[in-house]
Specification:
By secondary structure, the chain is α+β, with helices and mostly antiparallel strands. Helices cover about 45% and strands about 10% of the residues. It is built from four helices and four strands; from the N terminus they run H-E-E-H-E-H-E-H. It is globular.
């Protein structure tokens, strides 16, 4: 029983950190639609481990630039049809998940990051996107 209580306390603490980090990152990255950056809304009650951004242009260049700086980001979001059968043999089309997969940039918000990290990563995203591709070189 004590183990279960401690596990619940740990989960509650992690959820609180994630929520705080998510809100901080949303605050820092809100309003960047003019730069082609859109925040991905999470349903109420969800507990994300990453903040999802949708990047209209040059997502892979931005991703590689940030990965080269050892930032905790990814672009993992496989199109849903890949879970059910081979794409080459499938007649299923999933244009929405395909589009999300090609635009998504995931920024960690779990307990492995802190406020200074979130400030740095958001600042770098804003800097690169506001200066365009020349900032990636």
């Amino acid at each position: 029983m004590v183990f279960f209580y401690l596990l619940c306390c740990q989960f509650f603490y992690q959820f609180k950190v994630i929520k705080k980090n998510m809100l901080l990152l949303i605050e820092k990255l809100n309003g960047l639609e003019n730069l082609g950056i859109h925040l991905f809304d999470f349903p109420d009650g969800s507990v994300p481990w990453r903040c999802n951004l949708l990047v209209d242009n040059n997502r892979d260049q931005l991703l590689n630039s940030l990965l080269n700086e050892q930032l905790k980001i990814s672009s993992w979001y496989p199109s849903v049809d890949l879970f059910f059968e081979r794409r080459s043999q499938s007649l299923v089309e999933t244009p929405i998940s395909d589009e999300i997969s090609s635009k998504i940039l995931n920024v960690w918000v779990n307990e492995s990051v802190d406020e200074s990290y979130l400030s740095a990563v958001s600042g770098r995203i804003i800097d690169v996107c506001s200066r365009g591709l020349q900032a990636l070189n």
